[in-house]
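User: Good morning. I'm curious how NAP would be positioned relative to this chain. Could you predict the structure with it bound?
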Amino acid sequence: MNGRLAGKVALVTGGAKGIGSATCERLAEAGAAVAVTDLDDAEGQATAARIEQVGGSARYWHLDVTDEAAVEQTFREVRQAFGPINVLVNNAGIAGVNKPTDEITLDEWNAVMDVNVRGVFLCTKHAVPYMREAGGGSIVNLSSIYGIISAADLPPYHASKGAIRLMSKTDALFYAREGIRVNSVHPGYIWTPLVEELANQAPEGPEAFREALDAKHPIGHVGESDDIAYGIVYLASDEAKFITGSELVIDGGYTAQ
Ligand code: NAP
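Assistant: Good morning! Here's the predicted structure, ligand included:
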């Protein structure tokens, strides 16, 4: 453990796998007590167990970020178990349907908005009182390169990630004087179950899909979950105490083109 987050309490949504799971492990490694939350109980418990096995502090809660009563109750239980919450990572997100806008049903649109936008709203809403109690905090919202630029795919996903980018700035302004910082993180493609699922659906096949993705990143390949997790640890830590309303792009050069 390296102590950058010693004494802090962090709650991560969608912490069972991919970027969320790596984030839980890196936050714990830096000394935070981590509330791992997700829908996937087996993988979420496995993430918490891996942290405990190496001497970190973690516990798993089942949490659907779209359910306000569950969010309220989980945050209360985390506060009771670990103390006031210092760090919230709004990571839970889904890709949703991949078809043109005129073919998308309202239910398909709402499904993405519910997790990616409403979930960030609800978790932020219920974290802020505990961050006030802690005397400040850091909220890190997972947007995407697709919250900055677009592509001709996944219309609700792009809309949701653009919303998260500006929700982060609005909340940064609301809470700056209370010492609660809010920033967005914008990953390029990271090889996680979410992207593997996109690869499996690709008409050209998963291998050709991955090769094409690698080539889109000037650095020559897609990223790993830890590439994002280390950036989140930085934003969560007091080393980033002057950073709020900011966009941390971690994309192998994708958006520099
Ligand atoms: P992932 O591998 O699919 O993991 C996301 C986790 O969130 C899963 O465990 C999923 O559980 C959980 N989840 C889904 N709906 C939820 C809900 N309603 N409440 C709570 N948890 C829920 O995703 P990832 O690739 O690590 O992505 C993490 C975040 O980074 C997302 O916000 C994503 O948009 C963003 N991002 C990812 C990439 C990338 O290339 N991977 C790029 C840019 C941004 P189930 O599997 O059980 O549904």
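Residues 13-14, 16-20, 38-40, 63-66, 91-94, 115, 119, 142, 144, 187, 189-190, 192-195 surround NAP (CB under 6 Å). Residues 9-188+224-249 form a domain with the Rossmann fold fold (CATH 3.40.50.720).
Let me know if you'd like a different ligand tried.
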